[in-house]
């Protein structure tokens, strides 16, 4: 499983509730681990645990390595085991279609109450992480009786069941004809149909590919789709942005270095070309590379070899390169800002992703797909809110749309449906849901320019306010009259006058 999927599991409401209950009721830790170790560590974080002994061991000598090694071995032993720190661990597998994808684990208690200070554990703790409070940390370790252990097991099983149901539902939605698209990319517009027609052909090739598109159009998603559905799918997928980075750092990141190549290079590094061996290397924002780095990349693409910083012998590059940029590389070549030979080397297989404003018909599909993954947001969006969304130009494209949907988990958390008032100001205003927009009618502009009467402008504004109010209140005339501080009789008269009944 990829880290994004695991991250969604960790944020499920049931997982959060079970974690909080186990911490409060028994003082133990709940986490998710796969074959690489604890999810919290893989996501560049630290396992959040109330257990002082766990925290001390984690930050002791080789603490993270030893901890993850224990969890990597979960599938090879009993569901109940002892971790490297001497604490008891329970694990429940997450099994989907016969495959164990990960484990839900609980840890952080001692197996018995023997010896109040448990000298052996105190000694190990002091050896691994010198700590004057080792005895106190060990003394405070929970000891679970049969009833407590049964409740911990039940919590793990419940969490595993929720994750399985969530994952099965997610897979079903991806395969459903109600969400047309390909390989996780959603859409049925003509421009996206052309993308979906080209993707499988590019995926089966091992040649360098170039993905073009504005920021936020899904270039990395397309690159991952090329990898996951091509001959290198079993190999690694490695992504790196080439923007806002010095030549020295980018060169070391891409090609690696030998020990002592520069100050601070205490250990050798294989670089991203080495890490991606047998797989795909996605280079985003390749148009931001300096001329010097462009020359180095060109050499790799031509010779299929690269030389780590400080090394004398080249290494083979068994890597498919997928590059991406939001820039017009042809224009950069003409301006002398991008090497023409590298341009032709990259411009072998080209996939152009359209901006969202050119595929507005896909917006309801995208919103529905995003809502299915946002915990706490309504599952329904009102017509008025959808009109605002479709009228907005989305300069940040699909990435901005997803961020907008995610904010509804906060702004619309207590509502049955998303309404204009839940939208961000720019999106809301695109649909005319503010006084300034309502006032900016053709009649108002004509009056301001001397081409119309004040009465026409006022009537136009009044009509717009009432029409938007009806949409906002779902036709509730009593509520709208109260909001506008007029009687229902006056409102009925205006509705008839403006043909809004």
Question: How do the strands and helices of this protein lay out in sequence?
Answer:
Elements: H1 3-10, H2 13-26, E1 29-34, E2 37-38, H3 39-42, H4 52-58, H5 63-72, E3 80-82, E4 88-96, E5 99-109, H6 119-128, H7 134-139, H8 146-175, E6 181-182, E7 185-186, H9 190-203, E8 209-212, H10 219-228, E9 237-241, H11 247-255, H12 271-275, E10 280-284, H13 291-303, E11 305-306, E12 315-316, E13 320-325, H14 329-334, H15 340-346, E14 349-352, H16 363-371, E15 380-381, H17 383-391, H18 397-411, E16 417-418, H19 425-430, H20 435-439, H21 442-448, H22 454-472, H23 477-484, H24 488-497
Parallel strand pairs: 8-13, 8-14, 9-10, 10-13, 15-16
Antiparallel strand pairs: 1-2, 1-5, 3-4, 4-5, 6-7, 11-12
Helix pairs in contact: 2-8, 9-10, 16-18, 21-22, 23-24
Characterize the structure shown.
The structure is a single chain. This protein is of the alpha/beta class. The protein folds into three domains: 3-172; 183-354, 3-Layer(aba) Sandwich (Rossmann fold); 376-497, no CATH class. The protein has 24 helices and 16 strands. Strands 2-1-5-4-3 form a five-stranded antiparallel beta sheet. A hairpin with an 8-residue loop joins strand 11 and strand 12. The model is unreliable at 435-439 (pLDDT under 50).
Q: Mind summarizing the main beta sheet?
A: 5 strands, antiparallel
Q: What gross morphology would you assign? A: flat
Low-confidence stretches: 435-439
Do you know the CATH architecture of the largest domain? 3-Layer(aba) Sandwich
Structural class: alpha/beta
Query: Distance between the terminal alpha carbons, to the nearest Å?
Result: 54 Å
Oligomer: single chain
CATH fold field value of the largest domain: Rossmann fold
Overall mean pLDDT stands at 79
Helix content: 40-55%
Number of domains: 3
Strand order of the largest sheet: 2-1-5-4-3
How big is the Rg? Answer: 29 Å
Beta-strand level of the residues, as a percent range? 5-15%
Number of alpha- plus pi-helical segments: 24
> By CATH's scheme, which homologous superfamily of the largest domain applies?
P-loop containing nucleotide triphosphate hydrolases
Classified by CATH, the class of the largest domain is Alpha Beta
């Amino acid at each position: 499983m990829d880290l994004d999927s695991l991250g969604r599991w960790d944020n499920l409401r049931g997982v959060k509730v079970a974690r909080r209950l186990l911490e409060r009721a028994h003082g133990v830790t709940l986490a998710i681990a796969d074959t690489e170790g604890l999810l919290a560590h893989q996501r560049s974080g630290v396992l959040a645990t109330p257990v002082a002994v766990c925290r001390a061991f984690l930050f002791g000598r080789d603490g993270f390595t030893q901890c993850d090694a224990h969890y990597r071995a979960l599938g090879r032993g009993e569901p109940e085991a002892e971790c490297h720190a001497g604490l008891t661990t329970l694990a429940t597998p997450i099994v989907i279609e016969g495959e164990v994808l990960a484990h839900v684990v609980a840890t952080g208690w001692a197996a018995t109450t023997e010896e109040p200070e448990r000298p052996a554990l105190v000694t190990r703790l002091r050896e691994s992480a010198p700590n004057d409070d080792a005895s106190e940390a060990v003394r405070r370790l929970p000891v679970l009786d049969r009833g407590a252990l049964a409740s911990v097991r039940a919590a793990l099983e419940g969490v595993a069941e929720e994750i399985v149901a969530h994952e099965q539902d997610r897979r079903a939605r991806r395969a459903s004809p109600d969400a047309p698209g390909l390989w996780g990319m959603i859409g049925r517009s003509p421009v996206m149909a052309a993308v979906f027609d080209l993707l499988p052909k590019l995926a089966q090739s091992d040649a360098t590919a170039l993905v073009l598109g504005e920021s936020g159009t899904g270039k990395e998603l397309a690159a991952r789709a090329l990898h996951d559905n091509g001959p290198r799918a079993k190999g690694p997928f490695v992504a790196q942005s080439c923007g806002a980075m010095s030549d020295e750092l980018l060169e070391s990141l891409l090609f690696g270095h030998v020990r002592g190549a520069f100050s601070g290079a205490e250990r050798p590094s294989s670089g991203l070309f080495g890490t991606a061996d047998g797989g795909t290397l996605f280079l985003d924002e390749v148009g931001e590379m300096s001329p010097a780095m462009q020359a180095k990349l060109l050499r790799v693409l031509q010779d299929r070899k690269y030389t780590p910083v400080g090394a004398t012998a080249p290494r083979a590059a068994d890597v498919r390169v997928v590059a991406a940029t939001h820039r017009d590389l042809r224009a950069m070549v003409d301006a002398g800002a991008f090497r023409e030979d590298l341009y032709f080397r990259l411009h072998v297989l080209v996939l152009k992703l359209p901006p969202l404003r050119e595929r507005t018909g896909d917006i309801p599909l995208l919103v529905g797909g995003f809502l299915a993954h946002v915990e706490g947001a309504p599952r329904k969006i009102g017509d008025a809110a959808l009109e605002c969304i479709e009228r907005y130009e989305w300069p940040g494209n699909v990435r901005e749309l997803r961020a907008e949907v995610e904010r509804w988990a906060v702004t619309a958390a207590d509502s049955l449906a998303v309404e204009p008032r839940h939208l961000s100001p720019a999106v809301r205003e695109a649909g005319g849901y503010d006084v300034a927009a309502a006032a900016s009618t053709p009649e108002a502009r004509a009056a301001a320019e001397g081409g119309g009467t004040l009465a026409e402008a006022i009537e136009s504004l009044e009509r717009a306010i009432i029409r938007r109010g009806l949409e906002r209140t779902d036709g509730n005339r009593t509520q709208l009259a109260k909001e506008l501080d007029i009687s229902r009789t006056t409102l009925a008269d205006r509705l008839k006058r403006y043909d809004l009944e």
